[in-house]
Design goal:
Length: 147
């Protein structure tokens, strides 16, 4: 599989169909992605293989007897749905997930190597501005990368 990377500005229509970036679409094996709630009010989209790996890791660490682990499972696993590309290369994003992410017409699509994030463009812009300071701190703490 090609790596899913890049930042794209695309639109979503009134029916919830996202015009999906061609470069990312051609990197997706098959015609289906799994979409679910992400963190920070965005959506996460996974290929079938990456979703299986993610779901297996989540469920192997979850216990139905632990309330915090069930909160995480209910947030990420429960709302997940398959979405299929139409003949025009669009994805129909379910209404409940569009509402969660506050998706309006303008969207930002981010390839994050193993998955894709889908943001409302305004929400993403605000997120970047609000997280600049914590990003710098996180980058300094991210010391496992050497050049």
């Amino acid at each position: 599989m090609n790596q899913l990377t890049g930042e794209y500005n695309n639109t979503i229509d009134e029916k919830g169909r996202l015009s999906f970036p061609t470069k990312l679409r051609t990197a997706v094996p098959g015609n289906v992605l799994m979409v679910t709630k992400g963190s920070d009010r965005c959506l996460w989209l996974f290929t079938a293989d990456e979703w299986e790996a993610f779901e297996a890791k989540m469920m192997s660490n979850a216990s139905p007897l632990k309330s915090k682990s069930m909160q995480v499972v209910r947030h990420f696993i429960a709302p997940a749905q398959p979405v299929e590309f139409d003949k025009n290369g669009r994805l129909s994003i379910p209404q409940s997930l569009r509402e969660y992410a506050g998706l309006s017409k303008e969207c930002t699509v981010l390839g994050v190597a193993k998955f894709i994030e889908l943001w409302d463009a305004g929400v993403y812009k605000d997120y970047l501005a609000a997280s600049e300071e914590s990003f710098r701190e996180a980058a300094e703490d991210f010391n496992d990368i050497n050049f």
